[in-house]
Amino acid sequence: MSETRVPRRRRLLVCEPRHFAVQYAINPWMRPDRPVDVPLAQAQWRALIDAYRAHGHTVETVEPVPGLPDMVFAANAAVVVGGRVFGSLFKAPERRPESVPYDTWFKSAGFDVHRPEAVCEGEGDFVPAGRWILAGTGFRTTRQAHREAQEFLGVPVIALTLVDPYFYHLDTALFVLDDGTGATGQNGGTGGNIAYYPEAFSPGSREVLARLYPDAVIATREDALAFGLNSVSDGRHVFVSPGATALAEQLAHHGYLPVPVDLSEFHKAGGGIKCCTQEIRS
Ligand code: ARG
């Protein structure tokens, strides 16, 4: 079955964890009294970048800024669809300044950046899934930002309510396995598929997900707590936390190839593989 899964090369933006630290607590994972091993974090991050490149993906970097310890979580800086960059307005005042270096990077790479009026945190809560965008709310990104993103990007935005503070961003509870666009980037019309942890969502949002994705891979709480849903899939390879053992088995069963990458130091800040990875969709 894995022969039928076709990877699509991605353009990814990342930020080296040179100034990574846990200095404040804006989610339940963060404990400023518990030290981060920065050299280990750098080695783990480098292994992720090496894994992306080894699988054919293009990786670009934004220069880290001292005093912005969460800047490594590149996914939160924007959501990019069809070459349109919808920037972020972070909820936490500590993270707001991150928008400046990211917006500067996008501008120098030739993109216009839309500055949102409402609080939103990029791909942390906006998950492009082929024909639509799944959008989390409840902890960070607001419903007003969902409307703003739909208007700017011209793609239907489907709101999903998160209810568990450990899964405060949509990308901690759900990821896209396959966006249904196929190897060429053209709409294959399959609708794609996702993996998610249902209990992270309100009852109504669970129903929405069940309707949209009857064949989804359903993860356990253990998978989710191991940051297994904070994964990146290229349609064939899934860069996934090695702690999510049950999930990896399911992925293999569905014809995907799990590529384990351990970002345990980043879990201390409430982040994992996807959080460290911004996808630039042209
Ligand atoms: N400490 C960061 C925060 O709470 C972690 C962000 C993780 N990123 C993500 N895409 N979930 O904002």
From TrEMBL:
<protein>
    <submittedName>
        <fullName>Arginine deiminase-related protein</fullName>
    </submittedName>
</protein>
<keyword id="KW-0378">Hydrolase</keyword>
<comment type="similarity">
    <text>Belongs to the DDAH family.</text>
</comment>
<dbReference type="InterPro" id="IPR033199">
    <property type="entry name" value="DDAH-like"/>
</dbReference>
